[in-house]
Design goal:
The complex is a heterodimer of chains A (about 290) and B (about 230).
Chain A lengths: L1 H30 L14 E4 L2 E4 L4 H8 L1 H33 L3 H12 L6 H12 L4 H8 L13 H24 L4 H9 L4 H12 L1 H16 L3 H5 L8 H11 L3 H31 L2
Antiparallel strand pairs in A: 1-2
Helix pairs in contact in A: 1-13, 2-13, 3-7, 3-10, 7-10, 8-9, 10-13, 12-13
Chain B lengths: L8 H25 L15 H8 L1 H34 L6 H13 L2 H18 L8 H25 L3 H9 L4 H30 L2 H6 L10
Classes of the chains: A mainly alpha (about 290), B mainly alpha (about 230).
Chain lengths: ~290, ~230
């Protein structure tokens, strides 16, 4: 039986190592190369000339990232926008998850399906629908004008507001599901005990519900924050020229400037910024998966 | 309300507001797909003209075909790999490299698309220089990329199902003389099949929807539908 056991762990392990872990080493390697006009557009790190093997590490790409204010502000912008969007998601999703968790089991499933269902249609098309709603002659502005609330259309599309709407819209289910999974396990008797001991509803929330749902909050926040930092499609379509995010910078370096080494360095620095949140999520996930 | 801190008005209002927020773009899409006018914001009467045009657009239809093929193949392989990984995660308490393994399962769930896309592309470029494979980037490389990130999702779904699973059923089967493989096929697999279906559907949707990763790892002749 040792054979099947070995296969069960070996096959997925090897696949993920080869196609998920090894690529990062290659990104690291190329981030230390120099750009050149050739195919592929970067130099080799190791040179073999005569009997001398020489290793050339080019740190200029990183130096460039830290001296050019464009990159610094793009990183800062991404972290700020991802942080705010995560906070909004949490504030919106928490009450929703709470109400669903308190429903009778049959209705819970219906509402969970309602939350997940939109994610099963094309993400890109839903973002385009938001453009239709938010643009100057879009549905929202037309509706506000018809109601006589505004005279001139509000500029919403290509502003930070639209960017937040897009990110919160896309990631809300990722916040809601872990919160729900956590809140649904909450023992009613604890709430009753707190109330019997004289706690007011807001005290019950602050001292009992909130601390007990810490795990779900952490997981939800990481599931939103980490991908939001590197988000490319939403800032591209809904955000404005002022909201440069790092995912878009990477894309432009790679596809427009064709500077693969700088794009790799951008990716490595982004990864370093995300390593702490990823570790937090992994520890939570490992605990969840092992708990019995 | 059955509990002391039962759901009060404000959270319930939030639920309905949140749901309308999630469904607003969907409703608009469905309504306007039947619009006679080309403009999204102008209503010019009911029409199925765009559906007919869609069906006649050769390029669009072949992209749709490719998307479905890749999504089907990625979801199927990711379900097999993800199930294996999920069993390992839920059942094996300790083995060498376990921390790395669980990291490999968790990280793809959250890793920004641009990083996965870039790193896989650079892997394929390097591989083709060292060992001459893959010769071109296309459906095969998109498939590999999709299997990789879908496996992680399936693994999480399957292992959370295995967690709530009554192990005494497996023990009973083994006591009655079934070996490991037989027990797995006759008991474990049927019991976790809802998770397999859910994992497969999730993987299928994720693959169908992916734009960023496919843009990085595809070659010129393999455009999928989201592009």
């Amino acid at each position: 039986m040792a054979g099947t056991r070995w296969l069960t762990v070996g096959v997925p392990y090897l696949w993920l190592l080869l196609f998920f872990a090894v690529p990062f080493l290659i990104v690291l390697k190329i981030s230390l190369a120099e750009a050149q006009i050739a195919m592929p557009p970067f130099t080799e790190l190791l040179h073999w000339s005569g009997e001398k093997l020489s290793l050339t590490l080019n740190l200029a790409n990183y130096h460039f990232l830290f001296t050019d204010p464009l990159y610094f502000s793009a990183y800062l912008n991404s972290l700020r926008i991802a942080f705010n969007a995560t906070l909004i998601c949490l504030l919106v999703a928490y009450p929703m998850a709470w109400v669903i968790a308190r429903m009778p089991p049959g209705r819970r499933l219906v509402f969970l399906m309602l939350i997940i269902l939109p994610s099963w249609t094309s993400f890109l098309i839903r973002i385009y629908a938001w453009i239709g709603i938010l643009k100057n002659e879009g549905l929202l502005n037309e509706a506000l004008r018809a109601l006589g609330l505004i005279d001139a259309p509000l500029q919403i599309l290509h502003t930070e507001v639209a960017l937040y709407i897009g990110i919160v819209y896309a990631y809300l289910p990722f916040m809601l599901l872990p919160l729900y999974a956590n809140l649904v396990k909450l023992d009613d008797r604890l709430l009753e005990a707190a109330t019997d001991l004289g706690a007011r509803p807001h005290q019950v929330f602050l001292h009992v519900i909130l601390p007990l749902s810490r795990g779900g909050i952490l997981a939800g926040c990481m599931l939103v924050f980490i991908p939001a930092v590197g988000e490319f499609v939403i800032p591209e379509l809904l955000g404005g020229p002022g909201n440069l995010m790092i995912g878009k910078v990477l894309w432009q370096e790679f596809f427009n400037n064709r500077d693969w080494p700088v794009a790799s360095a951008v990716a490595i620095v982004m990864l370093l910024l995300l390593i702490v949140p990823i570790m937090l999520l992994q520890r939570y996930q490992a605990r969840e998966l092992e708990a019995r | 309300m059955k509990s002391p801190a039962g759901t009060s008005l404000l959270p319930r209002l939030m639920l309905w507001l949140g749901l309308s927020f999630l469904y607003a773009p969907m409703v608009i899409l469905v309504v306007y797909s039947f619009n006679e006018s080309r403009l999204v914001t102008v209503w010019a009467g009911f029409s199925t003209r765009w559906y007919t045009e869609l069906m006649q657009d050769q390029q669009m239809m072949s992209a749709a075909g490719r998307s479905l093929t890749i999504a089907f193949l990625s979801a199927s392989v990711a379900t097999v790999l993800g199930t294996m990984a999920g069993i390992v995660m839920a059942r094996w308490k300790a083995f060498r490299g376990r921390t790395l393994f669980s990291g490999l399962i968790t990280a793809p769930l959250v890793m920004p698309d641009v990083i996965i896309g870039l790193s896989l592309l650079l892997l394929f470029v390097s591989l083709s220089r060292w060992i001459g494979w893959p010769e071109t980037r296309g459906m095969l490389t998109i498939w590999i990329a999709h299997v990789t990130f879908c496996t992680a999702y399936v693994a999480v779904v399957v292992s959370s199902r295995l967690r709530d699973f009554d192990r005494s059923l497996e023990e009973a089967a083994m006591d009655l003389g079934a070996n490991r493989v037989r027990t797995f096929l006759a008991i474990t697999l049927p019991l976790i099949s809802p998770a397999l279906v859910a994992g497969w559907l999730l993987a299928f949707t994720l693959s169908l929807d992916d734009l960023v990763i496919a843009s990085f790892v595809s070659g010129p002749a393999s455009t999928t539908l989201p592009m």
